[in-house]
Design brief:
Elements: H1 3-18, E1 23-27, H2 43-52, E2 57-61, H3 68-72, H4 78-94, E3 103-108, H5 113-126, E4 132-140, H6 153-156, H7 158-173, E5 179-187, H8 202-214, E6 220-222, H9 242-253, E7 254-259, E8 280-287, E9 299-305, E10 311-313, E11 324-331, E12 342-344, E13 347-348, E14 363-365, E15 371-373, E16 377-383, H10 389-392
Parallel strand pairs: 1-2, 2-3, 3-4, 4-5, 5-6
Antiparallel strand pairs: 7-8, 8-9, 9-16, 10-15, 11-12, 11-14, 11-16, 12-13
InterPro entries: GH (IPR017853), Glyco_hydro_79 (IPR005199)
GO molecular function, one term: hydrolase activity, acting on glycosyl bonds
GO cellular component, one term: membrane
Length: about 400
């Protein structure tokens, strides 16, 4: 076993373990035999090494296989890819420690014609082999020149259309199979300098989390955490960038159970094949059970205001007379939407030291008070002690 590879795996696994993350390791699918089948010569050794170290790892094979021809001049069709994944599953089962390890794939690219064709053939031949179906979505190319481009409702709504395409293919072959967004970023080819790492990109990111939840996507894997291009969550000194703060607030406040939202004044009857391009987007979940500041039964609402004017939202029904905790995230500094710093309820968010997050302090809104969303901002609102039935379980 190559010592460089094992050292890299050690570092990667230790980082994930220390951070409380689960590692999904992508294997090289382009290591091919003359007959174009996947070459497994080093994979079994890697599996045995990981098993010996008791590394709890899940696995994936390749990245955007539909693009192999254009990238490296060597195509892998759906039938061959299905055989490769079946072979990998057999290898995992041959190593006792990884007998029940999870396998994800095929990590197809954005679901256009070629990617959908490959996914369809893969699911037909290897659907039961994977534990969840993965695919990638990137919103735009590198030619974007201004922050306002991130606020286009047409752009935000492309994800809904893509999820519908993917789930249709998956359910045709393996109904109920979990679907994951295995790669997600505001832009492909590493993003856009001084744009995809700013506050402006947060609208895409938070809306993605809301849309994916509503449409039953269990997991969204963000690309990337560090160093590659301009879509990363932390800078070169590991200081959090805006999307990191959005992610942290989301994790702290938003639980997995999704609730329906009715917005009076915005309700329109959708027409077949037409997406309603609202500039005020409201999502609701049960508050995260892991947040000990809130009892079970609390509700978290998060709102994206894409308008250039302030919008007022009045809670109705049983929500009307409850105390609300506000977590309003706005750009900090003179750069506006291009800011690389975020303020929470008016206070700039900064790490206290290399290991310590600042306290995420809410602003208390008295019962019955109207929520006022400033233009082009994102806010999270926890309705305390509402004892919602759907959130008590």
């Amino acid at each position: 076993m190559n010592m460089r590879i094992t050292r890299s795996l050690d570092k990667l696994y230790n980082f994930a373990d220390c951070a409380g993350l689960h590692l999904i390791l992508g294997l090289n699918a382009l290591h091919r035999n003359p007959d174009n089948s996947w070459n497994t010569s080093s994979t079994l050794s890697l599996l045995k090494y990981g098993a010996g170290k008791k590394y709890n790892i899940s696995w994936e094979l390749g990245n955007e296989p539909n693009a192999y021809r254009s990238l490296v001049g060597r195509a892998v069709n759906s039938t061959q890819l299905a055989q490769d994944y079946t072979k990998l599953r057999t290898l995992l089962q041959s190593v006792r420690y990884y007998h029940r390890a999870h396998l994800y794939g095929p990590n197809a690219g954005r679901p256009r014609k070629n990617a959908i064709g490959l996914l369809d053939g893969f699911m037909k031949n290897a659907g039961p082999v994977v534990d969840a179906v993965t695919w990638q979505h990137y919103y735009m190319d590198g030619r974007v020149s201004k922050a306002e481009d991130f606020l286009k409702t047409r752009l935000l709504d492309t994800l809904t259309e893509q999820i519908t395409k993917v789930t249709k293919v998956v359910n045709a072959h393996t109904p109920g199979k979990k679907v994951w967004l295995g790669g997600l970023g505001p832009a492909w080819t590493g993003g856009i300098s001084n744009l995809s790492d700013t506050y402006a990109a947060g609208f895409l990111w938070v809306n993605t989390l809301g849309m994916a939840s509503v449409q039953g996507i269990d997991v969204v894997l963000r690309h990337s955490f560090f160093d590659y291009g301009y879509t990363h969550l932390v800078d070169q000194n590991f200081n959090p960038l805006p999307d990191y703060w959005f992610s942290l607030v989301f994790k702290r406040l938003v639980g997995p159970r999704v609730l329906a939202v009715r917005v009076a004044g915005l309700q329109r009857k959708p027409q077949p094949g037409r997406v309603i391009r609202d500039k005020l987007r409201i999502y609701a979940h049960c508050t995260s059970y892991y947040n000990h500041n809130y009892v079970r039964g609390s509700i978290t609402i998060y709102i994206i205001n894409l308008h250039r004017s302030r919008k007022k939202i009045k809670l109705a029904g049983t929500l009307r007379n409850k105390t609300v905790h506000q977590y309003l995230l706005q750009p900090h500094g003179a750069d506006g939407l291009g800011a690389k710093h975020v303020q929470l309820n008016g206070e700039k968010l900064l790490m206290l030291d290399n290991e310590t997050f600042p306290e995420l302090k809410p602003k208390t809104l008295r019962a019955g008070r109207t929520i006022a969303m400033p233009p082009m901002t994102i806010g999270f609102y926890v309705i305390k002690n509402i004892n919602a039935y759907a959130c008590r379980r």
